[in-house]
Amino acid sequence: MGIQPELRLQMYETMLRIRRFEEETAALFAAGDLPGFVHLSIGQEAVPTGICAALDPADTITATHRGHGHILAKGADMGRMMAELMGKRTGYCAGKGGSMHISSLDLGVLGANGILGAGQPIAVGAALSARLLGEERISVTFFGEGASAQGGVHEAMNLAAVWKLPVVFVAEINGWAELSPYSDHVSVPSLVDRAAGYGIDAASVDGTDVEAVLDGAREAVERCRSGEGPVLLEARTQRWHGHFEGDRQLYRPEGEVAALPELYDPLVLQSDRLLELGIASEAELDAIERRVAEEVAEAVLFGRNSPESAPEDALLHVYSTDGRGGAA
Amino acid sequence: MGIQPELRLQMYETMLRIRRFEEETAALFAAGDLPGFVHLSIGQEAVPTGICAALDPADTITATHRGHGHILAKGADMGRMMAELMGKRTGYCAGKGGSMHISSLDLGVLGANGILGAGQPIAVGAALSARLLGEERISVTFFGEGASAQGGVHEAMNLAAVWKLPVVFVAEINGWAELSPYSDHVSVPSLVDRAAGYGIDAASVDGTDVEAVLDGAREAVERCRSGEGPVLLEARTQRWHGHFEGDRQLYRPEGEVAALPELYDPLVLQSDRLLELGIASEAELDAIERRVAEEVAEAVLFGRNSPESAPEDALLHVYSTDGRGGAA
Amino acid sequence: MKYYAAIREALRCELERDPRVFFMGEDVGKPGGIYAQSRGLQEEFGVERVRDTPAGELGFMGAAVGAALTGARPVVEISFADFIPVCLDQLVNQAAKIRYMSGGQARVPLTVVTFGGAGRNAGPQHSGSYEALLGSIPGLRVVMPSTPYDVQGFLKAAIRDDDPTIVILNKALLGLADDSEAGVEPIPFGEAAVRREGEDVTIVAWSAMVHTALEAADRLAAEDGVSAEVIDLRSIQPLDGETIGASARKTGRVVTVQETVSFAGIGAEVAAEVSRRAFGWLDAPVQIVGPPFTPVPFSKLMEEFVLPDAGSIVRAVREIL
Amino acid sequence: MKYYAAIREALRCELERDPRVFFMGEDVGKPGGIYAQSRGLQEEFGVERVRDTPAGELGFMGAAVGAALTGARPVVEISFADFIPVCLDQLVNQAAKIRYMSGGQARVPLTVVTFGGAGRNAGPQHSGSYEALLGSIPGLRVVMPSTPYDVQGFLKAAIRDDDPTIVILNKALLGLADDSEAGVEPIPFGEAAVRREGEDVTIVAWSAMVHTALEAADRLAAEDGVSAEVIDLRSIQPLDGETIGASARKTGRVVTVQETVSFAGIGAEVAAEVSRRAFGWLDAPVQIVGPPFTPVPFSKLMEEFVLPDAGSIVRAVREIL
Ligand SMILES: Cc1ncc(C[n+]2csc(CCOP(=O)(O)OP(=O)(O)O)c2C)c(N)n1
Ligand SMILES: Cc1ncc(C[n+]2csc(CCOP(=O)(O)OP(=O)(O)O)c2C)c(N)n1
Ligand SMILES: [Mg+2]
Ligand SMILES: [Mg+2]
């Protein structure tokens, strides 16, 4: 199945939205305008974009601590995301979650997660409920090489395989887990090597190339939808920023970080392709750039102008029945 | 490397010791003389016997809830084991552990374990300390197909592989985990398929044939000692008794259990071999049988005649400094 | 009906009532549970809705959380409460917090059924209950039924409720019978039951210790002419401070009894409630009866030594009379 | 010395002192720790003794237990206390119980260092501490140093001790300095510190809340002429009931303050100690100050709302004066 020109363009725009949103986030963080921990996925935009382009709206995802891209690619509103990063009332989580915990149940985003290895069993459960309730949706879960060391990832893969559930495990390999390299966490060159241990299909794609990701995703999704059970899809990508904002990456080899944009920019790869194939002109790309810049500016404005959450709203949403906290 | 005749005979005797010890245990349990849970390994004697025959005294093992065989094969005294099963003061654990928790630090038995997946990381730690302290010993850990679903087993294999530690992971596949079959727990025909995911060596052996187990164990141990990192050794075996004593195995296919002794008796296999090769005569085997029967009888006597643990000894051994429990 | 059968009865009722409900755990399906607590349910409701899991609690607990988030109503069994530590993250960081972290978008209608309790020579790793840990997690509810009637009522309430609830059953009570029949209505969380009225002292207990407390109350009446009120907490989170406070104000003396170690436990929380609600009425400090600070030993004699019995309660009461 | 540097100092001292000691955790080796708490140690002691782990806490916590069982003295870091649930089994069912289950054969000289505490907008999954859970497990020791001096002293004590000890540090204190220098001696477990003497009321706190309590005491002195005694528990398990009891008998009024939810928490345990040891001396019920029963929210305003501050303590004291 080929990729429609509009989709190629649209994926470019999605990646650009993630990039510009996160660049703005980085700037706001540096200026001291954002509290808490912020993990950015700049350089990795092709992965969530290509994956989510293969999904239906009803399909669900679980995102990671580095989840802005996953969530935007699944269709999230930038303004409500920015408001959440700022801890505002209008944020997706009313300011209670912050960057590490954004969810949008309506969009099938079951949540970013601050605990490595926790999203994978949850994703298996989403696939299980689909089968039980007779719903067509499939379930996608993102995780990195660091998380791959967690027991939860193993248990989830095993469970999905034993029960033949429609789960796509997306291993987003960006070379690092916090401040340490891949080889500190994994003893094999590729996570694809894990698939045979569960008897599931697996593939590895170039995570800098959104169309390669989409191709891999379509195949995986196809298998899932046809009831063949879970699939492991590895996407090799690059983390440009530090583990969290404020991390100066002094542990990385000299010059490595500086060279990344030259070597591995999913945006340049896709814009070159679009121009080369005549799918878009420079002018059209500029227009997208302006549109996205405007969207980001509006998102920031929306966040800034949004009301602060009322302090006592901290008491809400502990239980669904009472609206207020339970015991003292 | 061939197997010396004495060792062949000795392994037979070890298996017989396990068999008779556990038969006696079953009888005592049925008579209401043993408290708590008791899990027997009758039919599986070749696995711990073959494995431990490849080990040095300084090597350590972690055993499972079905651990009598592992512990006897590592050299444990039957009397102290029986006393532990009876909760007596002279038991290996002074009556505090019972069947599921026997340990003998002197013999390198780091403990049976009531928690699936817990012994494997502990075994990795034993290998780690060997390297740190400059000791030659290696570390062996037993687990079953049920436990293989646990995150702890995955984390341990990954850790041992990343750090290239001398650990032999012995997957003792007896077809069942509690009351449910292998296929409820594992989605691949053999756990050997897991090894590639960690880049470690693996082999599968006939767990009914003690010499096949020994051969596999020697190779695995050899690799470990030479610093090539962990090895996964699968032994396919059969569980004759129920999950715990008292379990009537109504969930197993009609006739399956009754047919096991005919098809998969590690003792018959080895005694036939010994006779055939002229390593032992019927009379010699009878002598072993009598010796073992005597040992079991003495063990039971030792257990019965041992003093009860003093109730207030329950307060001892919570902390090593005070001898008595800490806070109220 | 017997305690174990009440589990089955509640499950059957809820499976019938709501097609979104399903039950899973180790050996609960085809084998019908190691205590026969789900015997026959898989035949009745099929393998999708009564499901045997692999022996990986972290995985299937997480799957239950995910299923609950997406429209199903899972009931998941952890066969021994001692295995909760291997899947605790899915309870405390996920199930309990997801609704809150989502700003109220999400619901996690999850029911966890687990077997706790000591006194069966099951040894240090099979005798725990963890009610204080679980009860202290905002977002979770915890109940500990002491009778077959309560098992049915609370299990139904938990399954119909939209928040994660842990039902901690007691292994030692499995064979206990009462005159309850099928059809018990759901019991609201947070209501303790006064199992015996009394004037002189309040004994607060939960789970198996309720029966020990009633035995102690009989002895106190017979031997000391003391009239003890026995409160069965039933619901650990939320805790019924009102009933506790009212009884404490009436009797002026409170003894709590538990089979788990008491450090920062439910007894201490009950004492805190008593202090908040009845300080001026108290004639003596609250006595917290529990085992010494040790794991649960295997040997019969040692286990009996550490666990409170009616005698321990009687002694504690006498100390403050 | 600063709090984070005291960690490093204690580690360096113990690594030097005893070749069986090693330190491991996520990013503690080459990168030197996310708080620079181990910077330079790998260069000094090598990759075997200062070791980066994969991001799987269950695995490396278990490996620490196994290493401790076989002659080494591991110090293992769990970077956020919130990750303890993923490796809890190795603490509560293994490290804590192995010596007991073995009938005294085994020793588990394990030290766990972890970072707890809220107030940094780290959100619901990165703001926990778990002292009540860990403190209530027989076999474990738990300390929560509030000063750099205590960090050094307790960390050394933990490493030299033959039993598993959890050192819960506080993220909010990392930059705190005192006049301690290298060479602090190990501090015995179970001894609270009276940080400020007073006559009218006892404020019991631990970890970061000690500083909040001292601030409250200053305000009470200035605004109300009230003389507050401030006790820093320091050691959660064992708990220093004697110091608490003596102070309560002196002042007749006790307020505890904690940043974790108070249900069945350390405050309740302190109150139980007070009741046991000072019932007849009390002029008012023990006040347990803590956050409401919610997870820790992300937003600054909401987080400030839930966490106790000096004002909350002052109000609680005024209520019982
Ligand atoms: C259970 C758990 N352990 C440790 C952490 C701390 N931590 C946060 S991100 C991270 C590294 C994750 O690496 P990876 O999975 O490769 O994702 P990436 O950050 O590269 O996107 C670690 C160790 C955590 N959040 N949860
Ligand atoms: C963490 C944990 N979960 C569940 C159990 C209950 N349990 C005890 S043995 C067992 C089955 C184990 O099967 P396997 O690993 O194949 O060992 P086998 O009993 O066949 O020797 C289960 C589920 C447990 N002990 N620990
Ligand atoms: Mg990564
Ligand atoms: Mg098995």
**Rg on CA atoms of chain C, Å:** 19 Å
Poorly predicted runs of 5 or more residues of chain C: none
Shape of chain A: globular
Query: What is the makeup of the main sheet of chain A?
Result: 5 strands, parallel
Task: Give the count of helical stretches of chain A.
Answer: 10
Residue share in β-strands of chain C: 15-25%
Please give the CATH class of chain A: Alpha Beta
Helix and strand composition category of chain C: alpha/beta
- Estimate percent helicity of chain C: 25-40%
Structural class of chain A: alpha/beta
Q: Indicate the mean pLDDT of chain C.
A: 98
Sum up the overall morphology of chain C in one term.
Answer: globular
Structure write-up:
The complex is a heterotetramer, with two copies of chain A (328 residues) and two copies of chain C (321 residues). Helix content of chain A is 41%, strand content 10%. With 328 residues, chain A is α/β, with parallel strands linked by helices. Chain A is globular and about 50 Å long. In chain A, strand 2, helix 6 (151-163) and strand 3 (167-173) form a beta-alpha-beta unit. In chain A, helix 2 packs parallel to helix 7. Chain C folds into two domains: 3-173, Rossmann fold; 193-320, Rossmann fold (3-Layer(aba) Sandwich). Chain C has eleven helices and twelve strands. In chain C, the strands form two sheets. A seven-stranded mixed sheet of chain C has the order 2-1-3-4-6-5-10, sandwiched between helices. Chain C has a five-stranded mixed sheet with strand order 7-9-8-11-12, with helices on both faces. In chain C, helix 6 (148-160) links the parallel strand 5 and strand 6. The longest helix of chain C is centred in the N-terminal third of the chain and has 18 residues, at 84-101. Chain C is globular, with a radius of gyration of 19 Å. At the A-C interface, helix 5 and helix 6 of A face helix 3 and helix 4 of C. The structure holds thiamine diphosphate (TPP) (2 copies) and magnesium ion (2 copies). One thiamine diphosphate (TPP) sits between chains B (64-66, 114-117, 143-147, 174, 176-178, 239, 243) and C (26, 55, 57, 79, 83, 86).
